[in-house]
């Protein structure tokens, strides 16, 4: 999939441009999906720090932190606010309270509630860029809505691309889809160093999570608390658990395959516990280009919202005056088979990854509810995939049907019925 080059205008969202007087920039208009999560809250910080570059025009969140969503809306003066888990009266009440706390009057955004709230906000006509920071495959319909509306999509919701696969790729015009995950942002930057014909392979780095170096037998009695103790990144429950099982890295491999049209067999994973080198591109002449920066998601968020321009001061750089050490080691696929399993599921190009992702989400919830052990998470994915039969043409309906079936099959195996 083609990313816009540094000199190429971005589809439907030209990079921050001079205003009519030529005295300054007109900020790029940004929609945040999943605004109360880790990506969304950091995106607001990025926009606050660069008001000449970004203006938040719409927000949507699930509703688990309604008070925060309301405060964000009042803070940004977003013209549209969506919330999936509440009714209109509840959202209106939360916004009134937030306005009172901030001594704000006259704020009256358009409101969307219910399951389609994020999809409606994703298509907000005033938007130029939609940052999809939702968690899980629930982000697929908003992703498709943003693309259909012609907005540039800064994608942190990897699951929507992974489960949608060719469906999302067909919907995206060249240059419309820009990655936000640190690994894919790194690859996009490194790929500027050569042509597509010169790329030999992609190397996706992994921190190794909290269980780096452990054998499979050592993982049988891992507790949810241990699985959530990530050594580097602060993320939500699902993503942190996925990092511990290496499912997150598996999803990132498939995302890289879809974003950059590189064959699965030419994408490797290497464990890099310092999380400073975010990924690398190896070229045909033997050269490897790496993108390095301290672990801080504000850099790829800013680059995703501002692509193809960089945002000065988005994050602190490496301090080259201090001695440091970076290490790299191969992935132990016996202890962590999630990457191999995902490559096998994705090879068909059908709904295999929708099944993989849905089974994983059910298994992670069951693990945290004490119903299964840690290693049972990936074992559940494998068992459900073994039962899966492809359903023909890849459409939104076939993806949703495959997910529904996979959740049911996973629950049956787990014992949830």
UniProtKB/TrEMBL annotation:
Gene3D superfamilies: 1.10.1740.10, NAD(P)-binding Rossmann-like Domain. InterPro entries: DXP_reductoisomerase, DXP_reductoisomerase_C, DXP_reductoisomerase_N, DXPR_C, DXPR_C_sf, NAD(P)-bd_dom_sf. Residues 293-408 form the DXP reductoisomerase C-terminal domain. Its cofactor is Mg(2+); Mn(2+). Residues 1-25 are annotated as: Disordered. Residues 177-260 form the 1-deoxy-D-xylulose 5-phosphate reductoisomerase C-terminal domain. 1-deoxy-D-xylulose 5-phosphate binds at residues 158, 182-183, 207, 230, 243, 248-249, 252. The keyword Cell division does not apply. Keywords: Isoprene biosynthesis, Magnesium, Manganese, Metal-binding, NADP, Oxidoreductase. Pathway: Isoprenoid biosynthesis; isopentenyl diphosphate biosynthesis via DXP pathway; isopentenyl diphosphate from 1-deoxy-D-xylulose 5-phosphate: step 1/6. Belongs to the DXR family. HAMAP family: DXP_reductoisom. Catalyzes the NADPH-dependent rearrangement and reduction of 1-deoxy-D-xylulose-5-phosphate (DXP) to 2-C-methyl-D-erythritol 4-phosphate (MEP). This is 1-deoxy-D-xylulose 5-phosphate reductoisomerase. The lineage of its organism: Bacteria, Bacillati, Actinomycetota, Actinomycetes, Micrococcales.
């Amino acid at each position: 999939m083609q990313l816009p080059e540094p000199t190429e205008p971005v589809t439907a969202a030209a990079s921050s441009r001079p205003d009519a007087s030529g005295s300054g920039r007109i900020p790029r208009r940004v929609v945040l999906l999943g605004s109360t999560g880790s990506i969304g809250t950091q995106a607001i910080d990025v926009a606050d720090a660069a008001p000449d570059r970004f203006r938040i025009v719409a927000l949507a969140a699930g509703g688990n932190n309604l008070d925060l969503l309301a405060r964000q809306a009042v803070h940004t003066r977003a013209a549209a606010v969506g919330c999936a888990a509440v009714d209109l009266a509840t959202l209106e009440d939360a916004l009134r309270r937030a306005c009172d706390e901030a001594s704000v009057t006259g704020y009256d955004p358009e409101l969307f509630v219910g399951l389609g709230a994020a999809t409606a906000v994703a298509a907000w006509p005033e938007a130029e860029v939609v940052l999809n920071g939702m968690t899980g495959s629930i982000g697929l319909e908003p992703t498709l809505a943003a693309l259909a509306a012609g907005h540039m999509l800064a994608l942190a919701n990897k699951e929507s691309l992974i489960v949608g696969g060719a469906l999302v790729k067909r919907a995206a015009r060249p240059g419309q889809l820009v990655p936000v995950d640190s690994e894919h942002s790194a690859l996009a930057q490194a790929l500027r160093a050569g042509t597509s014909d010169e790329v030999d392979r992609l190397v996706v780095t992994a921190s190794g999570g909290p269980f780096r170096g452990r054998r499979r037998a050592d993982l049988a009695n891992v507790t949810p608390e241990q699985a959530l103790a990530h050594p580097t990144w602060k993320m939500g429950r699902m993503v942190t658990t996925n990092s511990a099982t290496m499912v997150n890295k598996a999803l990132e491999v498939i995302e890289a395959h879809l974003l950059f049209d590189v064959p699965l067999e030419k994408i490797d994973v290497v464990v890099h516990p310092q999380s400073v080198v975010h990924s690398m591109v190896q070229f045909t002449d033997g050269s490897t280009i790496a993108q390095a920066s301290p672990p801080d998601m504000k850099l790829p968020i800013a680059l995703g919202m501002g692509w193809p321009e960089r945002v000065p001061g988005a994050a602190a750089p490496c301090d080259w005056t201090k001695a440091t050490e970076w290490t790299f080691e191969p992935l132990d696929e016996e202890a962590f088979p999630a990457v191999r399993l995902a490559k096998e599921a994705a090879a068909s190009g059908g709904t295999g990854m929708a099944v993989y992702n849905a089974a994983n989400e059910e298994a992670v919830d069951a693990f945290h509810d004490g119903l299964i052990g840690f290693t049972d998470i990936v074992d559940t994915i494998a068992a459900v995939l073994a039962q899966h039969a492809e359903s023909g043409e890849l459409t939104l309906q076939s993806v949703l049907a495959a997910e529904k079936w996979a959740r049911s099959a996973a629950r049956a195996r787990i014992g949830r019925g």
